Amino acid sequence: MSSASASASNPRKRSRKSASTNAARWPAPTSATSASTSMYDRAAPDVLLDNNILGPSYCIDPSNKKALQAALNHARKSLSPSRYPHSNFETFTRANYQAQNESELVSKVVHPFFTSYFDQPSSTDLPFTTLEPAVPLPYKMPVPKPHHSFGAAKEDIEPSVKYILCAPGAHAPVAVNDIMQVKGPDGKASVLQSQVTLDGAVGERAMHKLRSFAIGSEVSADSEARTFVQSYHAGTMKFYATHRRPNPSGGPDQIVTSEIGGQYLCGSPAQLRDGIAKYRNSVQLATRYRNEAVQAANARAREEGGDESTDSEDDG
Fold this sequence. Notes:
The chain is an alpha/beta fold and 316 residues long. It has one domain. It has six helices and seven strands; from the N terminus they run αβαααβββαβββα. Strands 1-7-6-5-4-3-2 form a seven-stranded mixed β-sheet, with helices on both faces. α5 packs parallel to α6. The two termini are 36 Å apart.
């Protein structure tokens, strides 16, 4: 149902699903059509809103925003001028301006300058086809397909927790809470924002599912962001965090994506270094939260597996 998770510090097993994270839904509002809605459709933000998925334009901050921004701005010695030469900036700007579409930006800019730094389970342009839709019927929205995502390895999650998968394939990441969307030179910022908003909701749902599994019941919304999304468009990278909060009007929780930082990367070597540092810090934040959620869920699964073994021995 939900998505992906981490690398280095990962866990392991068992079988009992947590309470559904889809609280009883309000009747479908009439403000959005029940027909299929593309991310390029002007109605996309309305469909998301009708399903309690809010984007950056609502300016609702997570409770841990200051801590996240402090972590995002942490300096990295590996990116000091002496260790990350100015010539990298020239290579970067040339690649950025010569890229003609999204796929070229991913292969010539995003991968070599950003994502390749990390050795984590990842995906590129992978449709999240095994997820329960973030926007349920009668609404219809496209399957999330991030340009890049980081998550946990399937073998690091206990079998009973593996219903939280986003895509088939032995090496597809799971419990994904780190996602990037890219727009080419002619891409629309409004479409990018809708994609970021939906991706953030998918990642938050993964974290919510894992945390709920760990305690055996649905965990309460606490407004703390545990999912991170980056966008790249026109030489600028923006950083977002997604949190879940109680609905002020009652009903299902709201899932909110907020902008927490950004950097134009083509202005100077210092700006490029700062943007890369922010990116690496964002990925590490996502990894930390993901590992915590996976470890807690795995511990619960192993505990339940041990309880079942004891029960069967007693019965014998």
